[in-house]
Amino acid sequence: MKLGLPFAIAAAIVIGLVVMALRDDPDVVMPEPVVAPAAEPAPEVTASVPKRPAPLAAETADAPPDSGLLDDLDLMMLLREYGFGRLEGEWREWAASRGYPAFDQAGTQFYDQPYEQYDDETLRGLANNGDMWASQILAKRIAKTDPAGAIELYRQAAMRGSIYAMSELAGLYSKIADSRREVEFKAEPGALEQIYAMRDAPVSPEVSGYAWTMVADMAGTEPMFGNIAASQLSRRLNDEQLEEACTIARGMYDELRAQRETQGLGDFNRTPPPLVYWDPSNSASCAEENEGPNLDLTGCRQVEVSEEGQTNQIWLCADPPS
């Protein structure tokens, strides 16, 4: 798994991973997020304001039951009612609003302006003026030559609401902690000096990386992918380090919120994606009682899916099918 890119933005991949998570080992290898153009255009969504989902209609031969546990076949039938193309389109919009770049079929990122054609000075000027995309694009560009500078730029993007930047921070700290990855920083001697200093710092890169997955959780990441990233990082930490990471995460989250308030941005946007999957047995959180995703699920349609004796929660937050 590539920790810096934990989301699979295309809804077809998202739905496939949900079903995979119900069937297979939770430590799945996540694919790169790729948004490929659909073979057919997605159905147009006419409702511009989210509406509270209506109750399930009475059970029919072609619809899943309206009460009790669903199995994965029932789930796929239910998702088909909502429309895969429609869920894909809404997922893309939600991911982009959290800083996740879109990809074309060739794997090339694309944006609403040619950021990747800008030189570093132009990107830095845009970043200093509050451009979230410029901050994280420049951070990615300089991560191997100036990791400390990249961390600061990702923090700026995170403050602006980029969950993607938080996941990139977790991934970058993971690389910094891994001596096998030093070759990636050898092009610039100053970069190696930075990573050695970070390894010798009072807070280890492993702890910092896990802390950023927890900041993303507090800010409203999609729990399935956030938990997989956190689970893989947490295996490297003992209980004392996990508690340290949570303490750091709470402080960073409060600091980011305070900065957002100062700049008139308000709290983080916890509007959920169209599909939210939560596995309580594989969830990671710094909350004393981890009762569910840190998202505003008001109006979402909650269903329980049973697989091999385990019950998992899924929320459908797209507008209900008409």
Describe this structure in words.
This protein has 322 residues and is mostly helical. It has one domain (11-41, 56-316). 46% of the residues lie in helices and 7% in strands. It is built from eleven helices and five strands; from the N terminus they run αααββααααααααβββ. The strands form two sheets. It has a three-stranded antiparallel beta sheet with strand order 3-5-4, covered by helices on one side. Strands 1-2 form a two-stranded antiparallel ribbon. Helix 4 (120-128) packs across helix 5 and helix 7 (163-177) runs antiparallel to helix 9. The two termini are 38 Å apart.
How much helix is in the residues? Answer: 40-55%
The tally of helices reads 11
Sheet bearing the most strands, described? 3 strands, antiparallel
**End-to-end distance, in Å?**
38 Å
Radius of gyration computed on alpha carbons = 20 Å
Number of domains: 1
Cross-sheet strand order for the largest sheet: 3-5-4
- Helices and strands, in order, run as HHHEEHHHHHHHHEEE
Q: Assign the structural class, choosing from mainly alpha, mainly beta, alpha/beta, alpha+beta, or little secondary structure.
A: mainly alpha
Q: What's the total number of strands?
A: 5
